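W.,

You were right to be curious about this one. When I first looked at the sequence I had no strong expectations either way, so I just let the prediction run and decided to look at it fresh. Below is the sequence, 239 residues in total, followed by the output.
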Amino acid sequence: MEPMHILAIHGSPSMKRGKTHLVLERLLKGAERAGATTEVVFLQKQKIAGCVGCLTCWLKTPGTCVQRDGMAKLIKKIGGTDLMILATPVYVDGMTGQCKNFIDRLIPLLDPHYEIRNGHFRHVVKKKYCRKIFLVSVCAFYEMDNFDPLILHVKRAAENLNMEYVGEILRPAVYTLGKKKAVDAIEGVMEAFERAGKELGENGVVSEKTRQEAASEIVSKEAYLRTINRYFDAQLGRG
């Protein structure tokens, strides 16, 4: 049996400097421990224009976008992977603009005709490509429901692309990962992300227990509020 190949689409404009990369890197380490091969694509480094809605990829050059940029190579990569990870911080209740451009530009994989799948109108899928997608996300806000719009968006996109949404792993209050007085709690969270990668590599899914540990409380809501506001006051020269 060949090892699973995982392609991580990294949608944070901060790239390796951000907290999205911090948790994704640990998750991929776990996947590699399970024997999977991994690859990361930083969307910030790619030249990917927004979809212009011309429908050329459907009507004139089926499967080929009129825009000659980095997306064609990415679509080829997707075709050779077993699992695609979409990694994005929460930006204004959703994914980053880089991720949205990427998702929009996947329409050459589809046929303009419609079919009914599971009682719902969907586009016909005309090309073979990765059939599974997993979400990794972080958020500066404290509450887990801040991820709800993003999860729904990715699930709906997966349905339209005829991909199986195999779950998510999320980290709220992400700035707590830099808190110097909570080293043990932070390492517990990071170990959960690594274990999640191992579970993905071995089973293709992440357990509920691991997902809960990745999102577990490091400091109280009130302490986090004080800490983050002091940080921004310091950055503004007020502290």
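Here's what jumped out at me. The first strand starts at residue 5 and ends at 10. And, maybe more interesting for your project: The chain has a mean pLDDT of 94.

Coffee later to discuss?

I.
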